[in-house]
Each structure stands twice: as structure tokens, then as C-alpha cells.
């Protein structure tokens, strides 16, 4: 069961207006939110980020955080997500339906769509790590907006898959930005490095949690750009996202990172993240 523009509809029969601006232009924003044991993780941070993304594209969100939470809870109920289940919630706001012109029509009404589905945590991959390919960041210059225009991400992920890798690490003129749908961290001499949260990356919520956990536990975090040479000479690499959590990256373009095993700092952060999930107050 999906939520589409105020109605509850079965998957497969939901209709999109051919002139929905999300459909025509990718004119909209979205969030993917983790559900652990039937409860929402980092709900406030996701809603704040969604509101920020909407503001950056000059879109007014007509729903309060409480209204969005009611819809999220109903999506879980209607899709049989219980206290036993890990799952994900997708929420998207398109700018709405209007005769097709590029500039923003004055009277357009945003369209909210959401779905929730069971999704296990990727625990096996977290133990073994992923292989990545290094690929030019061909995306736009407002990666800080969680836009539904994702063609750049689709293409770089597919380039990575075509080389036999599981994900893409992106660089702009040799400076490492992030992955196709995750943030990237390098570890050198026990310290963490990640691209600063500016217009070239999405400020990931998992990234923020990891930075906070690292700092609280005495690890130094540098939010500053690093290049591909530093990347390949790192002691450890890992990526972070809502669905991947803390995911080791063990090789880049077929070259092992250090000894090609999941490193000890990454493992420590995985443990801290695990504890955080158990202790955090989820809604
Ligand atoms: N960067 C990009 C480009 C992403 O698409 C995502 C996931 N949506 C992230 C980073 C990670 O963000 P989060 O931890 O909030 O899922």
C-alpha cells in the first residue's frame, strides 16, 4: 500500500499525472529513512533535511512534521511492518502538476508520495566489505540538495557495476567527493577524513552520526578534501548511508586498500553504530 497525494493506493495501480513536475523534470526532493524493529531512526534529522532541500529549490512543504510522522506510521501499519521488522521508508515530494514550463508556476501544489517495505540490514556485506570503482563525478553542483533528479547517480553506479565493482567512489578533478548514494571516509594513522559538507556532497545523516560517535570516542575527524592518491594509500575506507550503515570498502579499481581486509577502526565504528541503534530513542 502506497500513499500518493492524500490517497492510499495499492502498488501497481498508483497513477502519476503526465505533467507532474517530478516526473517531467525530476523537480522534487526525497528521503529514505531507516526503520529498526518497527521504529524510525533519525526521523527529525531526515525531516529537517527534507525541509532544507525543499527550501533550496523554492518549494513550500505544506505538511507539518507531525502530519508526515502520522503518514509514516500509517505506511508502516498498512505494510505489515511490526516490532520484529527492519525496513525502509521512502518519502518524496514533487513540486506538483502543472502545464509544462521550466520556471516554477505560482499556483502549483506539491504532491507527497510514500512507501515502506521490509529490508534486512546488510550484515554479511558489512563483514566482508565492498569493492569500489573510482569514477569521475559527473553530477551537478548542488549535490547538497536531496533531489529526485538522480540520473548522474544512476550512471556512475552503472559504470561501477560494469567494471565488476559494487559501488562507485567519485572524484572531481582528483578530489574525492562521495559515493553514488553514500558518503565516503578514509582512515589514515587512526584518523578519519571525509569531504566537507558543502555543495559537492549530500550531508548524510549516517555521516553525521558516525562523525559524532567517532569524536565522542576519541577519534579525530577531519572534514577536509583529499585526493585519489590519498584514497588509494589509506589504511581503511568505508562508506556510510541509511541503508548500508558503516560499510567497509576493501578495494578500489581492483587495488586492495592496505591488506584488503576490513580494518580495525572501521570495525570499531561498526560496533559503536550498533550500540547507538540500540540506545537511540527511535520514534
Ligand atoms: N550521498 C548521496 C549522494 C546519497 O544519495 C546518500 C543516501 N541518500 C548519502 C550520501 C548518504 O546519506 P544518508 O546517510 O542520509 O542516507
UniProtKB/TrEMBL annotation:
The UniProt catalytic activity note for this protein reads:
D-alanine + 2-oxoglutarate = D-glutamate + pyruvate
Family matches, as InterPro entries: Aminotrans_IV, Aminotrans_IV_CS, Aminotransferase-like, BCAT-like_C, BCAT-like_N, Class-IV_PLP-Dep_Aminotrnsfr, D_amino_transT
Q: Which cofactor does it need?
A: pyridoxal 5'-phosphate
Under CDD domains, the record lists: D-AAT_like
Q: Which GO terms describe its molecular function?
A: D-alanine-2-oxoglutarate aminotransferase activity; pyridoxal phosphate binding
* Gene Ontology BP annotations: amino acid biosynthetic process; carboxylic acid biosynthetic process; D-amino acid metabolic process
Annotated TM spans:
none
Q: Which keywords are on file for this protein?
A: Aminotransferase, Pyridoxal phosphate, Transferase
User: Could you say which protein family the record assigns here?
Assistant: Belongs to the class-IV pyridoxal-phosphate-dependent aminotransferase family.
Question: What task does this protein carry out?
Answer: Acts on the D-isomers of alanine, leucine, aspartate, glutamate, aminobutyrate, norvaline and asparagine. The enzyme transfers an amino group from a substrate D-amino acid to the pyridoxal phosphate cofactor to form pyridoxamine and an alpha-keto acid in the first half-reaction.
Quote the protein name from its UniProt record.
D-alanine aminotransferase
- Organism whose genome encodes this protein: Brevibacillus panacihumi W25
Amino acid at each position: 500500500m502506497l500513499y500518493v497525494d492524500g490517497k492510499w493506493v495499492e502498488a501497481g495501480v498508483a497513477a502519476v499525472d503526465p505533467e507532474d513536475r517530478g516526473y517531467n523534470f525530476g523537480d522534487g526532493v526525497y528521503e529514505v529513512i531507516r526503520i529498526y524493529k518497527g521504529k524510525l531512526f533519525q526521523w527529525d534529522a531526515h525531516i529537517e533535511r527534507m525541509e532544507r532541500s525543499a527550501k533550496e529549490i523554492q518549494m513550500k512543504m505544506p505538511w507539518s512534521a507531525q502530519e508526515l510522522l502520522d503518514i509514516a506510521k500509517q505506511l508502516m501499519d498498512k505494510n505489515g511492518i511490526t516490532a520484529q521488522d527492519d525496513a525502509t521508508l521512502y518519502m518524496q515530494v514533487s513540486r506538483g502538476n502543472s502545464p509544462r514550463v521550466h520556471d516554477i508556476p505560482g499556483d502549483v501544489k506539491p504532491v507527497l508520495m510514500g512507501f515502506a517495505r521490509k529490508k534486512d540490514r546488510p550484515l554479511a556485506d558489512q563483514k566482508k566489505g565492498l569493492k569500489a570503482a573510482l569514477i569521475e563525478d559527473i553530477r551537478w553542483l548542488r549535490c547538497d540538495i536531496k533531489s529526485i533528479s538522480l540520473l548522474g547517480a544512476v550512471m556512475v553506479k552503472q559504470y561501477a557495476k560494469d567494471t565488476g565493482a559494487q559501488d562507485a567512489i567519485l572524484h572531481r578533478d582528483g578530489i574525492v567527493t562521495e559515493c553514488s548514494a553514500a558518503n565516503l571516509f578514509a582512515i589514515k594513522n587512526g584518523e578519519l577524513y571525509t569531504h566537507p559538507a558543502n555543495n559537492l556532497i549530500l550531508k548524510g545523516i549516517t555521516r553525521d552520526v558516525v562523525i559524532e560517535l567517532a569524536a565522542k570516542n576519541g577519534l579525530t575527524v577531519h572534514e577536509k578534501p583529499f585526493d585519489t592518491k590519498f584514497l588509494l594509500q589509506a589504511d581503511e575506507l568505508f562508506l556510510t548511508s541509511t541503508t548500508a550503515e558503516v560499510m567497509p570498502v576493501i578495494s578500489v579499481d581492483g587495488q586492495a586498500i592496505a591488506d584488503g581486509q576490513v580494518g580495525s577502526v572501521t570495525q570499531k565504528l561498526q560496533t559503536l553504530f550498533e550500540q547507538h541503534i540500540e540506545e537511540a530513542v527511535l520514534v
